[in-house]
Design brief:
alpha/beta; Rossmann fold; Arc Repressor Mutant, subunit A; 6 domains; 27-stranded mixed beta sheet; five-stranded parallel beta sheet; 22 helices; globular
Amino acid sequence: MEQVISLIQVGFPDVRRLGIWGMGGTGKTTLAEAVFHHISNGFQSCYFLANVRESEEHGRLFQLRQEFLSTIMEDGNLNISTPTIGAGFLKDRLSRKMVLIVCDDVSNLSQFEFLFKGINQLCPGSRVIVTTRNKQVLIQNDIDRIYEMEKLDEGESLQLFCQRAFKSNYPTRYRLELSKMVLSVADGNPLAIKVFGSSLYGKEKTYQESTVKKLKQVPNPDIHKLLICSFDALDCEEKDIFLDIACFFKGENRDYVTRIMDACYVSAHSGIENLIDRSLIYVSQNQLAMHDLLQQMGWNVVCKESPLEPKRRSRLWISNDIYDVLIENTGAKTLKSMLLDMSRISELELKPEAFVKMRKLKFLKFYHSCGTNSKILLPHGLLSLPDELRYLCWEGYPSKTLPTKFHPRNLVELDMSFSHVEKLWEGKQDLVNLKVMTLNHSENLVKIADLSSATNLETMNLVNCTKLLELPSSLQHLEKLTRLNLRMCKNLRFLPSLYKATSLTTLILSDCSILFSFPEVSSNLRELHLEGTTIEQVPSSMESLSQLVLLSMEDCVRLNNFPTAICSLRSLEVFSLNGSPNITTFPEISGNITELNLGGTAIEEVPSSIECLSNLRVLNLSCCRRLKIVSTSVHKLKSLKTFYLHDCSRLEIFPEILDTMERLRFLDLSGTALKELSSSMENLIGLVELRLNNCENLACLPDNFYKLKSLKFLSLYGCSNLVTWPDNLFSAIGGASLTEMQRDLHGLSSLENLDLSGSNLENLPTSIKQLPRLKQLILRKCKRLKSLPELPPSLKHLDAHDCTSLEEVSSIKKLFEQAVLCKDRPYGFLEWIFSNCFQLDQKAVRNTRTPKLQMLFGHMVTLLKDYHQEFPKINMVITCVPGSEIPEWFDFKSSGSSINIQLPSEWYYNSSKNFPTFVVSTVVSFQEYSGVREIRIRCKCRLKSRNGDCHDLSCSFLTWRERIPGSELIGSDHLFLLYKTCFCDDDAEGGWLVETLASNKGMYNEAWFKFYPLLINWDGSENICCEVKHCGVHISFAKEEAEVQPSKRFKYQS
């Protein structure tokens, strides 16, 4: 409502009109009523014209106008028989009265004109609000302020449905599943949610289930009645277009649909526009979309054409109906479209005459939602296909050719991907309407027939047609061809001249591995892909490609020179030679280039002429093993944002940055031979991410490195020779061999992610706490690290895997206090990984007096008792440490992976505000393994009631992850301590279930927990080489008021 009020701007001394537009049932009237009541006191006279469309349908529009004018004029005796009579009188009266008028549900322009005839000039300050499903009503009345109704989000939808169906705000587990099914149909439509919810209220479980199951198949009569009026207002052609979209083209690209429908209808473009204006369809990311209820309404219209005999309908989309029609050969001449997902049917053999009766079929699509093997067989071929076809898509078409009696003169798009065709047809065909031809992955295709008649062909896709040897010479005469994709046509040796194909803008020849000559193409070409070809030389004629924007010649292993003519390509923006190992010199190219990729080439030097590339944004020189020199002129690249130099193993010096480079955001110098960085690095004032991984020769960083105030991510993994450090710097110490550092660390104020893995440090400096935005600290394999100082309160993730000397982590205690008690710091989760930190294993460490993690974990849970009742700032805590026993203070412990507990009395008698949370713990035994990407622990909880009812909850924790594929191992047993604020279904919003359980907790007296460890390999497969040896559950309630609260015991310190 606030947005509408802000648009109408009550109080401004002008006349303003506002339109509220949306599909039926979205709450336009409700919103208009709310706004009307909210602002009406500020006007001299107000009137709400309700149900204008319905009034006209029942012949009451004149009466409505009379009532409206009488109220506005405050004259009960006013009687104006026709709109033209009294126009001057009305104009004079209304020009002196500030009024508020709402016209609800206006469906066409004539209604608005009738109601407002003679009163088009209102007093300054007046406001008119119009609600409609038809946007043109607003546009044609010059109402330029239009508020488009939005559907309810998931939370709002669920709450509204539960209020109507269950008279509560939140569902139980069973009701949640039921709610999801209903809401998937309603899709945020408020009226549908109310109607569906009310129909279920007070009904038995079996009735509810059967009703919900019916919703997706049979439209609710009240909803159908509401929506069908929009359909009935369409003309015949618009109705057909709407039904085509509902039954065939929903979700497809708008331009693609328009192109096909233009061959079927007089004005497809304006028809689609009108459907959009009437809120029957909408466009999302250039795809035609439609509310599920409107699609269901469209389906119902088609089904009513022949309720009992699908074969007599105009459109078929239900797999079983199509299967029956095809197998019985009963398709009728009324059929216009057929959409079949072959994944949903069993194998089907068609008779040759299967399509003979379907003379009016325009759209035919056989596709697979999963898999590619065709389930439709043609053991005896086909006699014909309908000549009226505009769109033919048959994935995996099983025959060698199309039927000889098929005349594709009306065909606009042909898609035979994954087909078995060897050639489409014999001889010459009339293809005057064909615009798109797709034969991707037709691996038996040998020949493309004559295309000289395909004068309107725009796109041709022949990806992975591995037996295709040549293309027809007629291709060069296709003046409208814009895109030709021949990727992976591995037996294609040469192309016909494409010089005359003047509309061709994109030519893709990637991985045509025996194509050795450069194609002759039109000067209008904009994109040329030659990746993976065997081209050895690029002819000087390339300079004629004056419109070329992108040229990619990656992995051209035989390419041994590049002509100087390349510099004449003034339009070239993206040029790539990655993986072309014979390129030894830096190419001279146009100054308009924005992206240059030379990774994996044999260049030895980046020349000073690079300064001419003033528009360059991306420069990739990665894996140039011979590169030794990068010119200092690189600092003149003022547009440069991304610079890759990783794995240039001979690069020892990074160039001086003699001037500021404000736009450079990303710099990767990993794996280079750098020994030091120049102090001029401070001129990279916009640098956000710097990678220096495995720079084993790097001995020092510049003293002024801390001046990189924009730096957010810094990684120095494996810089084992870094021996000296500048003042005012902490965040560049990964892999350092220093034993201790004492520095003032007030620099690098933007740093969020710091990777110091592989360091030889024994201690981190205490001033690390001064990094105010640090969220992630990675210390993996810091074998000599002994202790952690106080850490910044912003830290969320600490990974100290394999820090085998680490023995002091008490600072984590204060970090947790800060997270819980500091009100102004938002937290999503806290994660501390100490895997393979064997000095922290209480049992393994002998002669110790102070329990290291036992006390720490206990303190954390004490804080949680006070914390969990508040609105969650932290929804998850994960810790991992070597250990073989569940902490002693856990309420319930058990051997194995499951535990059954009796819920304590607090479960019954505490208020819902004191609803308990569960802290769980597991001991997991790991066998030796390698290659694991991540470890997850899933916990299932079943609450049991006295009468036998159960309520299932679950929670999943990502407890460990590897960042680089390798041989990382977790040795021995490990203890995991896990906490989640909302311990509930992963599929649900946590608060819904928690609040429901809180209000019904007296029902449950027993809980069963089961833990499932899951290891995920880098290839995505699952690894089962671990088991849960012990598990524990600790129930946390809020402390009684009499007890000392943690918030009173600890003070937050920054």
